[in-house]
Amino acid sequence: MNELLSTEVYAGRTLGDFISFDYLAGILGNVLSAIVVLVIGLMVAGWVAGRISGLSHKHKRLDDTLFDFLANLARYAIIGLSFLIVLNTFGIQTTSLVAVIGAAGLAIGLALQGTLSNVAAGVMLIFFRPIKLGDFVTINGESGTVKAINLNFTELASIGNVQIIIPNSEVWGNTITNYSAYDTRQAEWTFGVGYSANLDTVERVIRDTISADPRFLADPPPTIKVTELGASSVDFMVRAWVPRTEFFAYWKDMNREVKLALDAAGVEIPFPNRTVHIVKDD
């Protein structure tokens, strides 16, 4: 037995050294220290992430997407630091480990260039915020409300509530039309009336109709101009400002209300006519 315990196992240490009370007590102490460090690290990571994320909920001007990203970044950074402390506790050289991880990361990065381009674009979207959650946008020909901006993709919900997933590289690399960026929008219509109509009367009826609606914004003033003398109608181009959230409803409602107002005023709204001459052979 003494010969077995005296057998050298590793780095000049014998088997007896590894099973001695002092050595086992040291290992147990390191394990307990590691558990304490990990528990504290997880608690601190959750607390810090919650505080960062909570800032955007307290202040409406702060973007939820950006602060959720920063909260996750802080959480993972603290957890990673906790693991490095645990490794140091067991005597593992973390500098060598970091170098190995860096080399492996480079190899993985070369193999996943497309995925990493989406991640890089996601970071740009989150930090520069050309779009936010709840915005109605058109991206690469797809229109919908922004539901989520992740590191890899952006999720839209179409008008028909259909999920649309767009890779972030296509979002960042394409033209983005954001209909929710400003508080007001300009609605535009073209109304055609007959050539026999009194133009002053038509302008007055249109102006009174669009301005009578409570959603109408008087400043800037509306535009009502004759833009074309068509084949069968005199065309009025009409523009009016409205709150962004009321744009679609107001635009649709005014199509109906102006038609009814022009009918009530006796203004003819023409439609294309075709005269057919029938020639009979004798």
Write the layout of secondary structure elements.
Blueprint: H1 2-5, E1 8-10, E2 13-14, H2 15-18, H3 21-58, H4 64-89, H5 94-111, H6 113-128, E3 136-139, E4 142-149, E5 153-157, E6 163-167, H7 168-172, E7 176-178, E8 184-193, H8 199-212, E9 223-229, E10 234-243, H9 247-264
Antiparallel strand pairs: 1-2, 3-4, 3-7, 4-5, 5-6, 8-10, 9-10
Structure description:
The protein has 282 residues and is an alpha+beta fold. The protein has 3 domains: 2-111, Helix Hairpins, CATH 1.10.287; 130-178, SH3 type barrels, CATH 2.30.30; 184-264, 2-Layer Sandwich (Alpha-Beta Plaits). It is built from 9 helices and 10 strands. It has helices at 2-5, 15-18, 21-58, 64-89, 94-111, 113-128, 168-172, 199-212, 247-264, and strands at residues 8-10, 13-14, 136-139, 142-149, 153-157, 163-167, 176-178, 184-193, 223-229, 234-243.
Instruction: Output mean pLDDT.
Output: 80
Largest sheet, described in full? 5 strands, antiparallel
Rg, Cα atoms, Å: 35 Å
Oligomer status: single chain
Structural class: alpha+beta
Give the low-pLDDT segments. none
Helix content: 40-55%
CATH level 1 class label of the largest domain:
Mainly Alpha
Domains counted in the coordinates: how many?
Answer: 3
Total strands: the figure is 10
How much β-strand is present in the residues? 15-25%
Lateral strand order in the biggest sheet: 6-5-4-3-7
CATH architecture of the largest domain: Orthogonal Bundle
Helices, by number, come to 9
N-to-C order of helices and strands: HEEHHHHHEEEEHEEHEEH
What's the shape?
A: elongated
- What gap, in angstroms, lies between the N and C termini? 135 Å
Which fold does the CATH topology of the largest domain refer to?
A: Helix Hairpins
